Inverse folding.
């Protein structure tokens, strides 16, 4: 179980770094660097109506989610709380990421490097939990 938590902590840390960068650019209204995609794609995604959910920028919601996952993993490792809250939030983040990947592909027809990175991050974390389900929950 310690290895699973260690891997998840690494990917939660990557997510924190990614969403800190995005949140900084959102708060200070700066354009993000667009690696691997045309710059206008990142701009389109960053300024789309879908970049907010219930008025909250997705970048800030994502940052909050990654920080919560990281903190809960520390508490789980310490034996303070069970693992299921981590699994629940990762599953929610995974579903949200898949929805936003769909939005980028089929509604906006543009991708943001950092959004794709976050989606990959959640896919990896969700996969780690699925592949180790019996070890974690039995």
């Amino acid at each position: 179980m310690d290895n699973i938590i260690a891997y998840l902590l690494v990917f939660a840390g990557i997510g924190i770094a990614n969403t800190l960068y995005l949140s900084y650019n959102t708060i200070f209204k700066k354009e993000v660097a667009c690696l691997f995609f045309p710059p206008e794609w990142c701009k389109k995604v960053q300024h789309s109506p879908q970049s907010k959910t219930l008025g909250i920028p997705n970048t800030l919601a994502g940052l909050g989610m990654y920080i919560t996952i990281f903190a809960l993993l520390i508490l789980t490792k310490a034996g303070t709380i069970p693992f299921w809250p981590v699994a629940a939030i990762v599953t929610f983040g995974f579903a949200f990421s898949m929805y936003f990947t769909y939005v980028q592909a089929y509604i906006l027809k543009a991708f943001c490097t950092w959004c794709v990175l976050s989606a990959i991050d959640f896919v990896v974390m969700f996969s780690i939990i699925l592949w180790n389900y019996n070890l974690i929950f039995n």
Notes: The longest strand covers residues 52-53. Helices lie at 2-27, 39-46, 58-77, 84-108, 113-131, 133-137.
